[in-house]
Amino acid sequence: xxxxxxxxxxxxxxxxxxxxxxxxxxxxxxxxxxxxxxxxxxxxxxxxxxxxxxxxxxxxxxxxxxxxxxxxxxxxxxxxxxxxxxxxxxxxxxxxxxxxxxxxxxxxxxxxxxxxxxxxxxxxxxxxxxxxxxxxxxxxxxxxxxxxxxxxxxxxxxxxxxxxxxxxxxxxxxxxxxxxxxxxxxxxxxxxxxxxxxxxxxxxxxxxxxxxxxxxxxxxxxxxxxxxxxxxxxxxxxxxxxxxxxxxxxxxxxxxxxxxxxxxxxxxxxxxxxxxxxxxxxxxxxxxxxxxxxxxxxxxxxxxxxxxxxxxxxxxxxxxxxx
Length: 323
Description:
By secondary structure, the protein is mainly alpha-helical. It has helices at 3-22, 29-48, 84-91, 114-117, 131-134, 138-146, 150-164, 176-184, 200-209, 216-222, 226-237, 243-259, 265-281, 291-307, and strands at residues 67-69, 74-79, 103-108, 135-136.
């Protein structure tokens, strides 16, 4: 496994943990907080060489301090709440006086803390605290990991795998992508008696414009299902607002992300399909079906997104719809 694969695995599992925390209303919040606190104690020790202690008798779960490293003189607040008020509340606790010669660090375990680092905080006990350096979130952790040598990335990878590798399977969440795939898997896609509401010439022009070659056959094969997908989206939207929009925007985002990794339109197309497959298979509401059926439904969905301007560039005056 190369260093990119190590990093991708680490990123995926930290994202899963953050998703789990953000979805805490579905879970036992106390157990989740305890698990996250213990995990981050060991994780930060592994990453930075600290000697943080997890929940212990001395601190007795004291509010404002979750973890203490007496060797490196650190006190850590691990929080799923990411706000200026939360940080200032921790800094204002009388207990902080005892650790005024330590450094206070705030670890946001579920949300991006970029904006929080720009804030100015009341620090009544003058504990060492530099928001730029001492507010830690998933993105800053990943940036540190990305800069590690491959052997160190492997060490972090091994730690994450041991800590979260199996446990994360229980935190799968519903996704709209899985819902629409479940619907499509029940349909008959033989191409018979289909109502065509698109311009084959325009679709061919878009394929030429984007230099699609090997995947052209997939688009030609499944473009006939565009109108059927449109009807399924209409039904889907009857279940709630933004259902189909969220699916199409997810596909569009996968395309944008994959476009930064390759100049080959065919590889981008296939990678978008692979990303959808990964997402669907990791969704708790995915109804397992034959692999070939899953591939078929995903290809049909991606081709539809191609036709309706959600992925790949449009040639000038592109208009796929017919009256």
